[in-house]
Specification:
Layout (H helix, E strand, L loop, with lengths): L1 H23 L5 H10 L2 H8 L27 E2 L10 H16 L5 H24 L6 H28 L14 H19 L2 E2 L1 H5 L9 H10 L5 H26 L3 H13 L5 H37 L16
Helix pairs in contact: 4-5, 4-6, 5-6, 6-7, 7-12, 9-10, 10-12, 11-12
């Protein structure tokens, strides 16, 4: 893991340094080429060089390892040559660590242990998705790896949190593990379907990664719930939680709308061509339509949760206090 991270960091730095050097018109020293050749695997060198120095969501060149940009320039790409499988090690290790922690803590703390570990992982996953979607690090291999990491985590979280932990609950010992709520199951189903479509058709749709960035807010609902259980959702903490929850879930809704609305006309047109049998690239049209439909579902859930947040804050401002309002808690985002 450490060596892979160092190689990736060196690859990124050497790529941008090489691009900047090329703009000067001066030939790079031979030692740079030898160092780069010795340090980086061939697949990574080809992936970085294929884009001709530019980086962007969904790739830029025709080379192996970077997604090929569609004719409409929206950043969709094909990933026939990128490997499938290795990124699943990341969520698997997380699930193992979560299982060990849940098996070691007191039964009445098992739910909290599962949520706490998921918050850490999802917070990093959301930040990683934002990094891989925007800015100079929006490289196609990173995005395709994130699709696999996200899919693996959703599957394992559904299994562990929704089935395994509730199966081992023991009310006599104070363990109150419950299965996931219906809206959370629906959230997982949309995410799993979107990620699976990208892998099944070997087509990358940027929206599948962009929406993952909303998991940056994964820590807000558990923080609210724990503060409410401890009767600490008052005063400055209450105001801070209210502001963060409103801002976070408003941002989720805004990002969902920004992903869904601009793509609606072209996606519906592509689906019409697919149904009519006139689609030039059926796999692209099918994957694009699937991801867009899932984005609509995820956006609807984000709006639903934002409405719950607004209702909870309104109760608090109105004097009833969300610390004493059992129905005021918004559904967790994962």
């Amino acid at each position: 893991m450490g060596r892979t991270a160092l190689v990736a960091l060196f690859a990124m730095c050497s790529h941008h340094a090489g691009a900047a050097w090329a703009k000067t018109g001066v030939r790079a020293p031979a030692v740079y080429a030898r160092l780069r050749s010795a340090a980086l695997p061939m697949s990574m060198r080809v992936a970085l060089d294929a884009g001709g120095g530019g980086v962007g969501a969904g790739g830029g060149g025709e080379g192996s390892g970077r997604g090929r940009r569609d004719d409409d320039g929206e950043g969709e790409g094909e990933f026939e040559r990128l490997p499938v499988g290795w990124p699943f090690i990341v969520p698997l290790l997380h699930a193992v660590n979560k299982g060990l922690l849940c098996a070691s803590v007191a039964p009445d703390r098992r739910d909290f242990a599962a949520r706490a570990t998921d918050v850490g992982f999802l917070g990093f996953l959301g930040a990683y998705a934002a990094l891989a979607s925007f800015g100079p690090f929006a490289l196609a291999p990173l995005q395709f790896a994130l699709v696999q990491v996200g899919l693996g985590h959703m599957l394992l979280e559904s299994l562990v949190n929704g089935i395994v932990l509730p199966f081992f609950r023991d009310p006599a010992k104070g363990a109150h593990s419950r299965s996931l709520r219906p809206d959370i199951w629906l959230h997982h189903a949309f995410a799993i379907t979107a990620f699976s479509a990208c892998l099944a058709f070997r087509v990358f749709i940027p929206q599948a990664v962009i929406l993952t960035a909303t998991e940056c807010t994964a820590g807000l609902p558990p923080a609210f719930q724990e503060a409410r259980k401890a009767s600490r959702a008052t005063g400055a903490l209450s105001a801070t939680l209210a502001a963060l929850m409103l801002a976070g879930f408003a941002g989720r809704c805004a990002l969902s709308l920004a992903v869904v609305l601009p793509q609606a006309p072209q996606t519906l047109g592509a689906l019409a061509q697919l149904v009519g049998g006139t689609a030039a690239r059926p796999a692209h049209a099918a994957a694009r339509g699937t991801v867009w439909a899932c984005a609509v579902g995820l956006g609807s859930l984000n709006c639903l949760w934002f409405g719950k947040v607004v209702a909870a804050v309104s109760r608090s401002v109105g004097g009833s206090g969300w610390a004493r309002a059992p129905g005021a808690a918004p559904a967790p985002a994962s």
